[in-house]
Amino acid sequence: MDVPAGSAGVGSRKASPHVKDALAWPLVIDGHPARLLPNGQVEIDPDFGASGDAYMRGIAPTTNFGADVNIFAGDISDSSSDAARSPIKFDVSSIPADAMVSPVTFKLWEDFAANSGGTENCAFNLQRLLRNWDKAQVTWNVYSTGNSWTTAGAGSDGNDRAAAISASVTLDSVAANAFVSWTGTTLTDDVQKFVNGTYPNYGWLLSAPTAEYQGVGQYRFSRFCSSDHGTPSQRPVLTVPYTLPSVAMFRAPMWGRY
């Protein structure tokens, strides 16, 4: 019987330490089911829950909403012109630095949406964050206590957030009551660079620019379940398929008399 014996790196790369436990079938690496591909690579398809999320609100610029069971994007006030944006991040440090990431999927459960009569179909964007924000401290004005965003609400491209949109989904004001998924090459590249250390992992900012500041008495927003939501199956999810370098195979010795 052939059994995986550990990693045989590609080229001159050293074996990934995360493969050392893959010594028997079924193949399990870092607690996740894995598949051995015909080319000897290992493919893993884990889901990660959010390691931090919050929402920020323009009309409550010094209030932290990091413990709320929901996050928002858009104008959530029916009495003031408002904007809500949500930073969110996932800890992917368990993925080996030499892993090759496949298209990732970012999922949020949309449990409510509303429109008072303004813009109906709005783009809900993810942009990579550039500040090391703190879930328990982040507000519209600051990303952590004593540290202000360059522009309030993480609004400065190139300083608070990357200018490029990592992924975008257009939503109407009818709640899906299901997961909404974001994917794309830039989102995948973000995660690849989180994994290999090219980018620090501060996650993304969720915003819906055309749904913000609808005016006094107007609103347009979508609400999503946060990592603090009481229903675990509706909390944020990041699915990161990846492959590891080839796994060496050997034939188990047969002990005894011949």
Textual characterization of the structure:
- By secondary structure, this protein is mostly beta strands.
- The chain folds into 2 domains: 2-45 and 245-251, no CATH class; 47-240.
- Helices cover 5% and strands 36% of the residues.
- The protein has 1 helix and 20 strands.
- The strands form 4 sheets. Strands 5, 6, 7, 8, 10, 11, 14, 15, 16, 17 and 18 form an 11-stranded antiparallel sheet that branches.
- Strand 12 (142-144) and strand 13 (147-148) form a beta hairpin.
- The radius of gyration is 22 Å and the shape is globular.
- Mean pLDDT is 85; it is low at 1-25 and 248-258.
Q: Outline, from the CA principal axes?
A: globular
Whole-number count of domains: 2
Report the order of strands and helices.
Answer: EEEEEEEEEEEEEEEHEEEEE
Number of helices: 1
Instruction: Return Rg in Å.
Output: 22 Å
Per DSSP E runs of 2 or more residues, the count of β-strands stands at: 20
Largest sheet, described in full?
A: 11 strands, antiparallel
Helicity, as a percent range = under 10%
Regions with pLDDT < 50 over 5+ consecutive residues?
1-25, 248-258
Beta percentage is 35-45%
Mean pLDDT: 85
Helix/strand/pairing class, anyone? mainly beta
How far do the termini sit from each other? 18 Å
Helix-strand blueprint:
Elements: E1 2-7, E2 28-29, E3 32-36, E4 42-44, E5 47-53, E6 56-57, E7 70-75, E8 84-90, E9 100-101, E10 105-115, E11 122-128, E12 142-144, E13 147-148, E14 167-171, E15 178-182, H1 185-196, E16 204-207, E17 220-225, E18 237-239, E19 242-244, E20 247-251
Antiparallel strand pairs: 1-20, 2-3, 3-4, 4-19, 5-8, 5-18, 6-8, 7-17, 8-16, 9-19, 10-15, 10-17, 10-18, 11-14, 11-16, 12-13
